[in-house]
Amino acid sequence: MTMASSNTPIPVDDRFNEYESALKHQKSTTSKVWDEKTKLECENKNELKAQCNHCKSIFSAKSSSGTSHLRRHLNHCLKKINNDITQYTIATQPSLRGGPSIKNYKFNADECCRAISTFLMCGKHLFRIVEESGFRNMMRIASPNFKNISRFIAAMDVLMHYAKERDHVKEELAKAPCLNCLTSDNWNLEHTNDEYICITAHWIDKDWKLQKRSIRFRALFPLYDGLNIVDELVLCLYQWSIDKKIFSITLDNASYNDVMVSCLKNHQVRCCAHILNLIVKAGLELTDGVVGKIRNGITYIKSREFVGKDFMMWPTKVFI
């Protein structure tokens, strides 16, 4: 896609950059071995030590030494192996033949957090539900190894889940062998008078299956005109790296969409559902008088009990 005005690169800011930068910094400086090792303070600041949480052995923890030797120790630590064995439980799962099968099950905190994130998002629950006594009691009974989390940790897990899913969709869009079709719609919230925009991408994947994903859903800032909307659309396309892979854009007949399309060199498709809605409304305007009389008559009949009884008896009298 190309713009008629300017091709200046647009900075990407979807309000998760600060969170993701902190997350990447944490990942680059923290190894998983430190979940089972403890850093020890030494008199010599240049000399760092690490102690195993299982067997209490002490190792060098200099940055130049890396963490490979610590990981090797964890793989052969007898006390750690014994602890891992005690965490296994017997779980029954249905086999391919239909009968139950017995297999070892080990509690996985990461999978549990992902399941809670899915539970919060799909059920539209508040984050504070993870702090309620009923939820914590349920998780304690389901798995004694589960550690309670706060609403802030739950929110961070949801953001992390969103970031992973967004990156997965980005990969799918990049691998798509064809161009993408977009649909966009705006609507106004009556109580707050806020304007919202939703952009959906449609494409065919390598297996010739039609895919669609919502790639933008957010409130717009005033003024709600065509120029601001086109800025929002172009920013979305640059964020998803599909600015050069757009085939068409399906929009309704709003006047601001004409301004937006004039700024973009793409093929516009009018929304058939919106056109049919306008046709039906225009047809109903011709029958407003008749429909209004019928509605008033039904309201009159329902408002008076004796009139309703007489009305129900008339069909019997007429046909008899």
Automatic annotation (TrEMBL):
GO terms for cellular component: nucleus. Keywords: Metal-binding, Nucleus, Transcription, Transcription regulation, Zinc, Zinc-finger. PROSITE patterns: ZF_BED (PS50808). It comes from the Eukaryota. InterPro entries: RNaseH-like_sf, Znf_BED, ZnF_BED_domain_contain, Znf_C2H2_sf. The keyword Flavoprotein does not apply. The keyword Manganese does not apply. SMART domains: ZnF_BED. Residues 28-85 form the BED-type domain. It is found in: Nucleus. PANTHER family: ZINC FINGER BED DOMAIN-CONTAINING PROTEIN 39 (PTHR46481:SF10), ZINC FINGER BED DOMAIN-CONTAINING PROTEIN 4 (PTHR46481). This is BED-type domain-containing protein. It comes from Gossypium darwinii.
